[in-house]
Amino acid sequence: MSSDNTRMNLPLWVSVSVFVLTVVVVHLLYQGLIRPAAEAAIAAHGAGATANVWVILKDAEQQACITLAIFCLILMAYKYYRIVSKEEPVFTFDYLQTFAKDKPLVVDEALAYLEQGESATNSSVATWINCLRRYKNTQNVQHAADAIRDSVESLAAQLEAGNAMIRFFIWAIPSIGFVGTVRGIGSALAKAEEAVAGDIAGMVDKLGVAFNSTLVSLLLSIVLMYVLFHLNNRQDEMVLKTKNNCETHLLTHLHK
């Protein structure tokens, strides 16, 4: 079983393709809808358009934050799909129930049976395979039980490592928002002379960049952290149920 399957990550080339596609789609959305709508709102209401949703979203920092947020949601949706469709349906399944029925378990035959087809990409099956390999080499049930523990710990570490990119982007989104805040405040200070002369439109627009970028980035971070929290819970449940599945069913065959 490849580590990518265990971690339930998209392959690298797929991740890059999805990221590029997300960048393009969001850019087209901004060029075709959000920025024209924001310009129309500003033209119609002037400084009073600062609360308009299109005006809040119109700047480059918000575009970058939304792009990263959508990409993170796609990555988490894929992981969630793998858990629900590939892992959870077999948490309580005895893979060798039919194979070893009414006859002693032959480890070599059991390994060949489990390794065939795509079933070996399932985390539970992979743990069974590791356990049987350890038992084949040692002929000791306790060593096989240790293999279950080691495999489950490795699975938990791989799942955690697989979320590293998502955690980085969730950290990066508020940082991009703060970059927009600094840029907006700096640009607003450059408009101070015009504001003193009575033209406050330029300063209001730049201050809008400062506050809106922070607002959007923090809201997106809250949503993403909430989704990641639930994904982590499902992954933790997956690890525990994988361990229980092996201890409940696999060790039963080895004790016969």
TrEMBL record:
<keyword id="KW-1003">Cell membrane</keyword>
<feature type="transmembrane region" description="Helical">
    <location>
        <begin position="209"/>
        <end position="229"/>
    </location>
</feature>
<comment type="similarity">
    <text>Belongs to the exbB/tolQ family.</text>
</comment>
<feature type="domain" description="MotA/TolQ/ExbB proton channel">
    <location>
        <begin position="135"/>
        <end position="241"/>
    </location>
</feature>
<keyword id="KW-1133">Transmembrane helix</keyword>
<dbReference type="InterPro" id="IPR050790">
    <property type="entry name" value="ExbB/TolQ_transport"/>
</dbReference>
<protein>
    <submittedName>
        <fullName>Biopolymer transporter ExbB</fullName>
    </submittedName>
</protein>
<dbReference type="Pfam" id="PF01618">
    <property type="entry name" value="MotA_ExbB"/>
</dbReference>
<feature type="transmembrane region" description="Helical">
    <location>
        <begin position="37"/>
        <end position="57"/>
    </location>
</feature>
<feature type="transmembrane region" description="Helical">
    <location>
        <begin position="63"/>
        <end position="81"/>
    </location>
</feature>
<keyword id="KW-0812">Transmembrane</keyword>
<feature type="transmembrane region" description="Helical">
    <location>
        <begin position="12"/>
        <end position="30"/>
    </location>
</feature>
<keyword id="KW-0653">Protein transport</keyword>
<keyword id="KW-0813">Transport</keyword>
<dbReference type="GO" id="GO:0005886">
    <property type="term" value="C:plasma membrane"/>
</dbReference>
<dbReference type="InterPro" id="IPR002898">
    <property type="entry name" value="MotA_ExbB_proton_chnl"/>
</dbReference>
<feature type="transmembrane region" description="Helical">
    <location>
        <begin position="168"/>
        <end position="189"/>
    </location>
</feature>
<keyword id="KW-0472">Membrane</keyword>
<dbReference type="GO" id="GO:0017038">
    <property type="term" value="P:protein import"/>
</dbReference>
